[in-house]
Design a protein that fits this description.
The chain is α/β, with parallel strands linked by helices and 232 residues long. It has 5 helices and 10 strands; from the N terminus they run βαβαβββαβαβαβββ. 38% of the residues are buried. The mean pLDDT is 95. Keywords: NADP, Oxidoreductase.
């Protein structure tokens, strides 16, 4: 396959919520630890949408004004000396992520950051990324071309499988683009009950006519379960 394979890998409650008061309770520690442990067994890159990245991995607010006057061209910036066994991919079309270091520590690893942006990101932001030695891929004018990003991730970084961990909007966008090859759901032994919390996919009300079938069911020690679906 020319592009990286995409696996949606999510941790959710029995009623399909991807966050809430249930997450992190003592009764779901086995399931929660299992979810984290599985991520880099599934692939070499952990990918998220900008909301999730800003919330967990890149909370800083860099002063971009110091890069005023930069004449950086909108093209991929992938220095050959930047290498890593595992990666953290940020789908960040406007350039919102405030990286304070060029990696995100997760699942016991220092996963080197990669930004996937569009030409909506400012030149100042590109200069900021270069100063942080964070490679970036320009994939689209205003909206991200997800298929192009997957080809580039495999070409430049040898990422054969990208594990997408949300949020709901980015999961939905990949589904609508027909780029989801497999879905991995770790279901905690709790019910959220909160209708305001997001589900695994948000397709903005659009039904996506794609069919998946279960290929694995595994019971976990705390009452949770791991389900894997392959696309038909």
């Amino acid at each position: 396959m020319e592009r990286a394979k995409v696996i949606i890998h999510m941790y959710m409650s029995i009623d399909g919520k991807i966050d809430g008061d249930w997450d992190g309770l003592p009764g779901d520690k086995i399931s929660g630890d299992y979810y984290d442990d599985q991520l880099f067994k599934l692939g070499s890159a952990n990918a998220n949408g900008s909301n999730t990245i800003v919330m967990y991995a890149a909370k800083g607010k860099p002063d971009l004004s110091k890069y005023d006057g930069q004449r950086i061209e909108y093209r991929d910036w992938v220095p050959s000396e930047i290498k890593s066994a595992t990666w953290d991919v940020s789908y960040d079309r406007r350039g919102r992520a405030g990286w304070e270091k060029n990696y995100f520590p997760y699942a016991g690893r220092k996963n080197r950051a990669i930004e996937v942006i569009t030409k909506q990101a400012s030149r100042n932001y590109l200069a900021f990324l270069q100063s942080m030695e964070i490679p970036y891929l320009v994939c689209g004018e205003r909206e991200i071309n997800f298929a192009e990003s997957l080809v580039k991730l495999k070409k430049y970084f040898d990422i054969k499988t990208m594990v997408l961990g949300g949020g709901a909007l980015i999961n939905g966008a990949f589904l609508k683009a027909e780029l989801v090859d497999q879905i991995s759901l770790v279901i905690a032994p709790y019910i959220s009950g909160d209708s305001k919390k997001k589900g695994t996919f948000n397709t903005l009300g659009e039904f996506v006519n794609q069919r998946f079938h279960v290929t694995q069911t595994k019971k976990l020690g705390d009452g949770g379960v791991h389900l894997i679906y392959d696309r038909d």
